[in-house]
Amino acid sequence: MIKPYYEQNNLVIYHGDCLELLPTFAENSIATCITDPPAGIFFMNKEWDSDKGGRDKWVAWLSNIMREVLRILKPGGHALVWALPRTSHWTGWALEEAEFEIRDRIAFLFGTGFPKSLDVSKKMDEMARAERALVGKSKDNAYRLPSTFCANEGERFINLPTTPEAQQWDGYGSALKPACEDWWVCRKPLDGTIAENCLKWGTGALNIDGCRIPTERDLGRKNEPTGENLTWGGTYGKAQNNFYGVPVEQQGRFPANVIHDSSEEVLAEFPNTRPSAGIKQYKERTNSGGRNALGNFYKDTTWYGVVDNGGSAARFFYGAKVSPGERGEGNNHPTVKSLALMQYLCRLTKSPLDNDLIIDPFMGSGTTLIAAYNEGRPAIGIEISEEYCEIAVRRLSEATKQLTLEAKHV
To answer: CA quadruple 70, 73, 77, 81: dihedral positive or negative?
Structure first.
């Protein structure tokens, strides 16, 4: 095994190409993979985000890496793999080629995306070498006229199209504003059933209760006791145990495959649901002396369920609030992920057992490792750029309050 670039507090960083380093790890030795691979779109003209020569070559490149990840994961181990919507299908294809089972796809909604749309009308005027008429400045991004940014932050020049063609195509662009990213949820094939796999390998299941969405509402359903003998495949009555639905407000709502960043822009897109009248009654009616499907006699059963009192539909999804300072001083990595989001993903895949090891073969500036540390999980990061390794070590030092840059080499 290659010597670590950094090792402390159950966190390890390796500097190098993950395709070369992953084969050095033992088979069935890692519990989880959480990673943010390149998207293949030449983001900010970065070579590491190249498409490797086209779709097929890019898919082959990522599938080769993820095939090694599959080998070192324990049976039932989950891999959560980030993707941009534009090339998300490439990522999903690569994961299937690596023989992962696709289990789901989490959509992360955010409000910080900046439109990267070409102003078609403006480009037509540029091609015709026609000067556009400047009519003023505005700080209102909703202003309809095509505009460009001024030197002062938040200000925009407002100009009018000049040529007839530019006037005809005024208001047209080339792309939508980015507001979501994908996380593919996939799993290494099980060794037996899920329960058998969990007992043998400590992997295979998601930490549902640990990731429930908090709520103060009573989401349970309760059976109002009547004192009568109520039979449904058996007798329940005064002298025996009446059935009561279990209130789950202490646990919260079941986690969904949508997560948002709690920004005002995103929350504004969720509708407000109509407040309920409070208690809603559910009733099963049958003829007196009727029989159920099992041939047993039973009488009317009344169910009471407390209906959620309304509010923003965003309450049904986890809100990964982004801290303004979590990027860290001097962190110039262009695609830093939300720490709250990464902690949630670490928690979602967390086992109740010790040595629940995470690997991130595309570590970047180390957010996965910080998230793992905060969730009490050991983690390994691999990064090909030494510059980003240095940034990750610095961020880990700040996050753990114990580490120093001098301790990185072991």
So the answer is: negative
* pLDDT tens track for 350-364: 999 988 999 999 999
Q: Is 9 left (phi over 0), alpha (psi -120 to 50) or beta?
A: left
Tell me the pLDDT tens digit for each residue of 220-246.
Answer: 444 444 444 433 333 334 334 444 444
Give the residue extent of every domain in the chain: 6-113+181-211+317-403, 120-168, 221-256+271-311
159 or 236: which leads in pLDDT: 159
Nearest CA to 85 out of 185, 177, 180 is that of 180
Chain CA centroid to CA 162, Å: 45
Lookup: tokens for 166:
């530019």
* Amino acid letter, 10: N
pTM of the model: 0.78
Q: Which fold has domain 6-113+181-211+317-403?
A: Rossmann fold (3.40.50)
**Residue in the structure block whose two tokens are 């549902």:** 208
E strands present in 265-321? 272-273, 279-284, 301-306, 311-312, 318-319
